[in-house]
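Notes to self, Proline iminopeptidase:
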Amino acid sequence: MLHGTNDECRWRGAGERPRRAPALTSATVPFPSIDPYADGLLEVGDRNQVYWCASGNPAGRPALVVHGGPGSGSSPRARKAFDPNVFRIVQFDQRGCGRSMPSAADPDTDMVVNTTGHLIADMERLRTHLGIDRWLLYGGSWGSTLILAYAERYPERVTGIVLVGVTSTRRREIDWLYRGLARLLPAEWARFRSVLPGDGDLVEGYRRLLEQPDPAVRRNAAIEWCRWEDAVIAHESLGSPGQYSAEPDTALLAFVRICTHYFAHAAWLDEGVLLREAGRLAGIPGELIHGRLDLSAPLETAWELAQAWPDARLHVIDDSGHTGSPAMGEAVVRAIARFA
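result:
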């Protein structure tokens, strides 16, 4: 449950609700909506094409926006936090979602070539394609995991990092979200669990359902997965009923198939490796913004990262959960402005 969505930077049938994106309201975002000045499909191998778009100042400071999910697609709302006169704002849809092709909603799409390693390579290929030497990285939730993995692999390519709703996709984080929270939401979790026989690995069980040939089985599993996601944010001021499960089928299926695929494999990351290797980020300034009321991604991970990364500053937003708040939106704008 680590998310974010789109409008023009995404296919029309995919829905437009924000997933795990910071709250950026008209009161907190000083910059207007802007259209991309360039976009395209980048060949990344494995029969995959990654959609990208660029907006703002073509000669400005490069900034890459990394969406959440995994599998949610990019959002035009995210670029409102950037001064378009200062930044060259680059966005992309990760493999299998948004306008990238092929879509994970298609059961014939090969998920073996959709891993964290592939996404890191896609980011580097995009940087080279656009002729960018170094860039600022901004993203939230799953996006923060991917940013950390990329930055620890290529620290020389990063000018700064802004993370919102910090996660590292450890198995303990995944287990908390899809099992531990049962202690707080017992009725909702009972329904979530009831879709599968027995009491085994729920994430792996749902992953297998999303690989079934019967479209009705896949659709029902995707709906129930997102119903659980809805329950986890229901207490938040910006959470709304059906925020995830009411999305169109194509977006729903792509999102849940990618999400379960990544979480069943703990994102192909050794447990705790992103925190252990945070020393590789030395010299890179970072801003960590996290809601104290975030049930799905508790504050612990953000705090641990701040301890391991001396160049990062942690900002705890007392009134925010994972979907954000006006105060969180203001913190995001201030954090990005630091790099302007």
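- The first helix runs from residue 116 to 129.
- The beta strands are 38-45, 48-56, 61-66, 87-92, 135-141, 158-166, 286-291, 312-317.
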